[in-house]
Each structure stands twice: as C-alpha cells, then as structure tokens.
C-alpha cells in the first residue's frame, strides 16, 4: 500500500492511496492517515489506486471520517473502483463515507456540507 498526504491551498487535506486496503495495507497507512484526519477539517481521499477494500480498510476510513466529523468537517472518497464502491454501498456506509466521481464533485460536496 502506497500513500501520499498533502495539505492543499484551499485548506483541504488530500490523501492518495494505492494498492490493497487489506490487513497489511491498512497497517501500513493507519498511522499517517489517522494523523492527517485528526488534524484536518476536510479530507479528500483519492481511492482511484485502491484495487481491493477489506473490512479492516473500511474501519480505517470510518475512523478517519469520525475524526474529521468531530472537527465539523467531511471526508469524501474520490474515484473508487466499481468493486470498492460496491463494497462500501453493500456495507451500508455510503452515507458515512460519501463518494465522488472526481475532485470537482468532492469539492462541491465539501462546500455544500459547510453551507
């Protein structure tokens, strides 16, 4: 699992993930993702490189979303592969882990939540 974390000019934090969010992948990114979410108001997670999402990966994303929500913000997943999106939808967590097709839509979702 590879990751990068950037603070964007507009006050957002962008987390880019690629690989498998399984037991090993989640363990590899848990600390940096949790730290980034704990210090951010709004987070966009680019999921376009995530090819598999296990329940432990969902737990990691939920934990991040809860940290951001406590600060009055929103965590949005961007461009998940169809299988990853289906996993989130079938788990009943699409309302807690909102998904956007692209960065523009993610920005709109965050702006709409702030209004």
TrEMBL record:
PROSITE patterns: STAS (PS50801)
CDD domains to which the protein is assigned, alphabetical: STAS_anti-anti-sigma_factors
Xref: InterPro entries: Anti-sigma_ant (IPR003658), STAS_dom (IPR002645), STAS_dom_sf (IPR036513)
Domain of life: Bacteria
Residue ranges annotated for the STAS domain, each copy included: 2-110
Family the UniProt entry places it in: Belongs to the anti-sigma-factor antagonist family.
Protein name: Anti-sigma factor antagonist
């Amino acid at each position: 699992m590879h990751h990068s974390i950037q603070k964007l000019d507009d006050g957002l934090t962008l987390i880019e993930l690629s690989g498998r969010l399984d037991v090993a992948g989640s363990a590899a990114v848990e600390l940096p993702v949790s730290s980034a979410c704990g210090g951010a108001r709004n987070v966009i997670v680019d999921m376009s490189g995530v090819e598999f999402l296990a329940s432990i990966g969902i737990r990691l994303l939920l934990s991040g979303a809860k940290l951001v929500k406590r600060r009055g913000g929103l965590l949005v997943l961007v461009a998940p592969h169809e299988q990853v999106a289906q996993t989130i939808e079938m788990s009943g967590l699409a309302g807690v882990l909102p998904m956007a097709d692209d960065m523009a839509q993610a920005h709109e979702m965050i702006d709409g939540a702030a209004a």
